[in-house]
Each structure stands twice: as C-alpha cells, then as structure tokens.
Amino acid sequence: MKVIVKPSTVSGTITAPASKSAMQRACAASLIKGGETVLHNPGISADDMAALDIIQQLGATVMQQDDTVIITSNGVNPVSQTINCGESGLSVRMFTPIASLYKNVIFINGHGSLTKRPLHFFNEVLPQLDVQCKSNNGYLPLEVKGPLQPKDIEVDGSLSSQFLTGLLMAFAGASANNVTIKVNNLASKPYIDLTLQVMKDFGLQVPSNENYERFHFSYKSNGKPTDSLHYTVEGDWSGGAFLLVAGAINGNIEVRGLDVYSSQADKAVLQALMQTGVIMSVEVEKITIQKSKLKAFHFNATDCPDLFPPLVALAAYCEGTSVIEGVNRLAHKESNRGLTLQEEFGKMGVEVVLQDNLMIIKGGEPVNGAVVSSHGDHRIAMACAVAALKAESEVHVEGAEAVNKSYPAFWSHLEQLQKS
Ligand SMILES: O=C(O)C1=C[C@@H](OP(=O)(O)O)[C@@H](O)[C@H](O)C1
Ligand SMILES: C=C(OP(=O)(O)O)C(=O)O
C-alpha cells in the first residue's frame, strides 16, 4: 500500500494508541496469574493480536466484550503444540521462556522480519534451566520442551532486554524461590522497569532489582489469584512520539492518553523535544505542542532505541547538526534502522551520517518530496510521513501498511490532524 502525504499543517486533538509493550506484557501476566483479567483500553495492533493468539494457544480463553478483553487462565496449559509470534520481537522473546514452563514440546514460529531476528540466546540459556531447545541456527523456528526450572543463572543482556523480560515472567510463573538472574550489559533498561511494573500490577512475584545487574526472587505467596483483576493498558509513548514530533514540525496539536508517570522508555522523547526549544506544555491529561523554531539536539537513545525514527524526522527540521547516540542498538529491529533511516531520509535530501555509535543529522535544510519505502518497518513509515508535513512537495510512502505492527490507526489519525 502507498500513502501520499502532502505537506500540511496539523491541528486538533488526538489520543495516542495503546502501548503494545504494555499490552503484550499484560497478556503474558494474565496467562501466568490465572483467574480472570479484564483488560481496558486493549491494544489492537498486529503485535497485540499475536500476543492474544499466543496466550490462547497456551491455554487461556480470550473474549472481547464492549471495549474490553476478558482473559481467563489456568496457567500454561497449551491447547496447541504451536505458537505463532507474527512479527513481534517481544512476543517471541517473552513467550518462549513462558512456553518452556510446559512439559511437552512447543513449536514457535513467526514471519516476515521476525525470521531474521537473532534468538541464539535461547540455545545458550534455556538448557541451563533444563529446557531442551532447538533453533534454526539461532533463528526461527524454535522448538522447546520444558518444564523450565528456575536456577541461578548469568546472562548477557546486550542484544535485547526482551529475553530478560521473558525470563523474569517465566521465573515468576514457576514460583522461583531464592534464585538470582545475573545480567551483564543490559540494554534498554527502562523496558525492564515496565516488565517489573506489570508483574507487580498483576500480583506476580517481583524480584528485587539490584542496579539492573541482579534480579533476585524470594518466594512470597500471593495467595489465590485475584478474581477479576482490572487492568488499563496505558497509552503508547513510542507511537505518541510521532504525534509530538508532527506537532513540533508543523502543527498545533493536543496529544492525550500519554501517562507522564509511565515506566515506558520512550517517554524520554520529552527530553529531546525540550532541547529543541519547542513550545510545549506537559500536563497530566494532555500535551500541547506547536510548530516552533527548533534548534539541534544531542540525545542518547541507547536505552530507548525506538525513538531514533521520530527523532530523525525532528532533527531534519532543527537548525544545525543533531547527534543521537546508540546506533548500534538498531541493527536487529524490523529493519536495520540505522541504514534504512539514512537511505530513506537521504531520498528526501536529509543528510544522515553514521559514525561509530552516533547518528549525525544535518538539519534546517529544505526537505524534498520523494518516493520512500518503509522496508516493512512501521517506524520508518511513520518517520517519513511526519517528515513529509513540511517538505517541499509530496512524499509517497510505499509499504505504508507496515504501521499495523504497532499503530494501525496511524494513517487515519494523521489525516484527521491534517483536516482539522
Ligand atoms: O520490551 C519491549 O516492549 C521492547 C523492547 C525494546 O527492544 P530491545 O530490548 O531489544 O531494545 C524495543 O525496541 C521494542 O520495540 C519493545
Ligand atoms: C522493535 C520493535 O518491536 P519488537 O522488537 O517487539 O518487534 C518496535 O516496535 O520498534
């Protein structure tokens, strides 16, 4: 699908979508907790749908009712031998250890970009927890056979935090007692805060967190699972970042649904925006942001790598040279995002230089109309669309359907803002 974005101002009020990071964790926690969970503001992205499907294959029942999703679970009790993670990195890395709680073989698959994302962590780590694990040389498909036994273990967290999220959930699901997960070089640390927050909200066992290096579980019985836990999925700072950047580039908009007290990593977009000098007011209920004269910024996105795409769009309109640190974190996302951002913004005449772990963006020059490609990556599609808002002419975004992975309403939200 191709979407043509015309240069235009944006105005009006928009509510950010549900966070897929929070929604997928809530699905996992509902499965592990047992009993009934009512999810309010449930996400509907492709990644969220993958997580809902996985928990059903692993034994939960899922019912849509009005604006909620009701999940009932008896723990991990699969009704199928196979789970399909779609294109979701979080789902495959979080649900593989959870599926390993089961005593029989489970096959794990996915499609598209997920088949190219590294999973060798499991070949190294799961056997140490008594799980047999086969993979296709460190890639999908996987085959696991548990039951996983929580043990003291030391793992490498430098590739992705998502493996640790999976281990933490699985250890809680196995009632880990007096065991420690030691992690070296953990990446994307705030995502672990979100994991621990969701575990706490669901009444799961929460380990102590010693400086993101040691997570110690000491068993505390929480008694019977709470009947009918109500959980509201928070708004998505990762998708919301594109809306805020759209406002800064060429708008006057109000973004709702973003919790300023959230544990989400991408809340840090506010820090980058503040450096640009944008006119913005942050309140509990809403963030108001408007087109302003923007100056270049220097931002470290090592722990919030999903902010690179919106920040490159922002940097294109900032006077001077902006620098974003943490490019090494981008190689294994839906595309190799350092390279795809360089290529696609290059087509619009925006110079993006990759130097070691830095991305250097020369801003303040005219942004040209162009035909760009999403490379099947939702965040590349959204970054190009937002950059188009003040371009010299139309930007044609090919592969625009990629946004369904995290933000299916993105194109209609953008259109709504362009019209109001
Ligand atoms: O746990 C999560 O919800 C996520 C963690 C991050 O991945 P890494 O830990 O691999 O950086 C992020 O990029 C991804 O979009 C979502
Ligand atoms: C990398 C992403 O997600 P995941 O790793 O869960 O596929 C993303 O949403 O940008």
Assign the structural class, choosing from mainly alpha, mainly beta, alpha/beta, alpha+beta, or little secondary structure: alpha/beta
Would you tell me which CATH topology of the largest domain applies?
UDP-n-acetylglucosamine1-carboxyvinyl-transferase, Chain
| Number of helical segments with 4 or more residues | 12
Q: Give the bound compounds.
A: shikimate-3-phosphate, phosphoenolpyruvate
Question: Rounded to an integer, what's the Rg over CA atoms?
Answer: 21 Å
DSSP strand (E) fraction? 25-35%
**Count of strand segments:** 23
CATH superfamily descriptor of the largest domain: Enolpyruvate transferase domain
Do you know the CATH architecture of the largest domain?
A: Alpha-beta prism
State the name of the first-level CATH class of the largest domain. Alpha Beta
The coarse overall form would be: globular
What do the pLDDT scores average to?
97
Tell me which oligomeric state these chains represent: single chain
Strand order of the largest sheet: 2-15-17-16
Any idea how many domains? 2
- What profile does the largest beta sheet have? 4 strands, mixed
Distance between the termini: 25 Å
